[in-house]
Write a sequence for this structure.
């Protein structure tokens, strides 16, 4: 990208106290309450009449529009003929994620994820009653989607109910292969991108975005009892995982987080050649994903690794620069020096 798209932004916008901002960010990311409420109408053993196809797609679109991170999903870059199918995939991921993360306890989450898996099987067998699967059945048929990406996601969310620690980067990336990479592969099907090297780039981007989210949410995840930060990194940086919930981080925690964020940056940049494949809308969408992830990581650096007292946001100015860069330079693989991966000390 040119300098107009990569100029270092101002510090992230912080307007609330850390406690209020943390609750606000957590709620906006998880859609707290929506899926729980919809379970009363569309959950197991409910008797609501199935929605018509256009109503099911509208439900998926409304669910997608509810979430802050969805500026890439509902992007104007995506052609009108593709957008409903992107929303149906997003709605599936949103339900899956919230069934795993927003229930009362792991036992309830496992039960609901098992029910959700049965809905996947029914959908691929040609039957659907839940609005997400009514829409998704159309998407599956039109783009010849296979069950594996959908079931891989569920296997990762089921794993979250029992495994809350990871020993190494390699072990965590194995988790990302199922928790993040399938989403990119599904979107590639919508764009008819099938080159083997493109699959590898997509996986690198999706894993990098997952790592970036883990970095920015390290305190929120720890409060849920989950530590995705690999144990060998914690030991190397002298960080006690028991202190990750503390509102005030240690210097070693902040420094260690910046080192971990560098791993996410390397993964994102490694996948950037994907923008040179597929239709223009796909390239622009990938640019938004990659550059958005790099911006989150840049903000971590600007805050010197402190995601505990100053929850991260992407400012309006940063979003405008991301959008402009994706419009003007959709095929660019250049990376500003501030985003260049650095060798760990």
């Amino acid at each position: 990208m040119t300098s107009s798209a990569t100029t270092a932004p101002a510090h992230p916008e912080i307007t609330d106290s850390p406690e209020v901002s943390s609750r606000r960010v957590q709620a906006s990311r998880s859609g707290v309450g929506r899926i729980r409420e919809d379970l009363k109408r569309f959950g197991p053993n409910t008797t609501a009449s199935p929605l018509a196809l256009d109503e099911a797609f509208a439900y998926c679109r409304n669910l997608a529009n509810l979430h802050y991170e969805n500026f890439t999903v509902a992007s104007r870059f995506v052609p009108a003929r593709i957008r409903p199918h992107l929303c149906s995939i997003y709605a599936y991921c949103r339900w899956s994620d919230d069934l795993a993360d927003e229930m009362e306890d792991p036992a309830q989450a496992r039960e609901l994820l098992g029910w959700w898996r049965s809905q996947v099987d029914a959908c691929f067998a040609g039957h659907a009653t839940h609005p997400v699967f009514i829409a998704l059945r159309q998407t599956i048929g039109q783009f010849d989607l296979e069950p594996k990406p959908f079931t891989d996601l569920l296997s990762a969310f089921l794993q979250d109910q029992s495994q809350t620690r990871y020993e190494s980067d390699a072990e965590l990336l194995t988790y990302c292969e199922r928790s993040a990479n399938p989403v990119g592969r599904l979107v590639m099907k919508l764009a008819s991108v099938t080159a083997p090297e493109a699959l590898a780039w997509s996986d690198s981007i999706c894993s990098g975005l997952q790592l970036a989210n883990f970095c920015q949410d390290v305190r929120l995840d720890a409060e849920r009892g989950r530590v995705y930060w690999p144990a060998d990194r914690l030991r190397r940086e002298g960080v006690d995982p028991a202190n990750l919930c503390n509102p005030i981080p240690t210097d070693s925690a902040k420094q260690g987080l910046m080192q971990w964020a560098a791993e996410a940056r390397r993964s994102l940049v490694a996948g950037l050649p994907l923008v040179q494949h597929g239709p223009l809308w796909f390239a622009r969408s990938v640019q938004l994903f990659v550059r958005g992830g790099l911006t989150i990581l840049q903000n971590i650096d600007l805050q010197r690794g402190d995601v505990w007292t100053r929850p991260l946001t992407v400012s309006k100015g940063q979003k405008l620069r991301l959008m402009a860069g994706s419009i003007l330079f959709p095929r660019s693989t250049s990376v500003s020096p501030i985003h260049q991966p650095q060798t760990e000390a």
Notes: The chain has two domains: 19-162, 164-345. Confidence is low (pLDDT under 50) at residues 1-30.
